[in-house]
Amino acid sequence: MTTKRIHILTHPLGANYGGIMQAYALQQALRQMDYEPVTLDIPFDRRSRLRRWAEAQVRTVKRISYDQSIRSERVVLQHTSRFVQQHITLSPPLRSDAQLRQHYRKQPAHAYVVGSDQVWRQEFVPMLDDYFLGFIPEADPVRRIAYAASFGVDPIDIAPERTALYSELLSRFVAISVRESSAVPLLAQRFGATAQWVLDPTMLFTKEEYIDQLGLREEPSGEVFAYMLTHTPHKEELARQIAESHHTTYHLFAPWRHWTKRGQELEACILPPVERWLEGILNAQCVVTDSFHGVAFSLIFGKPFVAIVNNHGGCSRFDTLIKLFDLEHHQEGAYELVSSPKCYDVKAIAQTLARHRITSIGFLESALH
Known about the structure:
Polysacch_pyruvyl_Trfase; Polysaccharide pyruvyl transferase domain-containing protein
């Protein structure tokens, strides 16, 4: 009997709202095609930012034991973990190469899908060979697919000595798609691989579908929603200026800024529920963000926004979206402050998204067939 199971490799799901939502959306899209998606739970050996925070507490507050730090992490991630448990099908934790290979042997799949998110960024993925599916024997006919995979930075940070190996592994893929358009020529030139640009998985669904699927409350707040992956005084000042120009307040959604707090202030570090993050964007007057997925959901929900981009690295994550929708005026340099975001044609954005949803879903359907 042929299995319809699809195994997905992406980043670990825990503290990153955008990462959680792209994993959710890809599974939803595959379910609608009548497949059985399972995201492989592969904890990275490299300590997460949250783990570093927890271990810092162990060093600086001697009475906090290692077990307490683990419990603290569970407290901090309680809401995001609940969302993952409720909405995303995961494999058992695969904590080593041996466990990953054993899972591969014991759990047959119709296909392996790598993506989305920055799965090919060496800095973030210490076991990068696995994300080119190096653990699958060459003779295995299982379908190998990359969906909206991202290198994250331009130039990419993959070591030159890995080029030959990854070129060989990519040649075994039946279809490759990428999240940044700049990666299409890069894959051809460096790895000899043919790739197609597709939408990030989060953009495969409409505002109305997200409201219906997740029970989101649409109650306009009139606020400026400031979602910061990396909080700085410059970015908060930008949000304050925009709110002031609109005669309103701003809501700073940057719980990570509390991770330097001592153990006795653990409550301040708890990440809010994923649904509250989505509602923050959905109900905002406008959005100020340094996050790719903050921009993506602003577009999905039809919200004016300002994208704060670090021009010293990582711009490629934003460039494709900004250029696709002809929104260059919404992109600001890392420390440039502006008075207000400009509006855009919400209907035109929705029409562009609808066109690209068709081709992106078509890519997946064809690759899996």
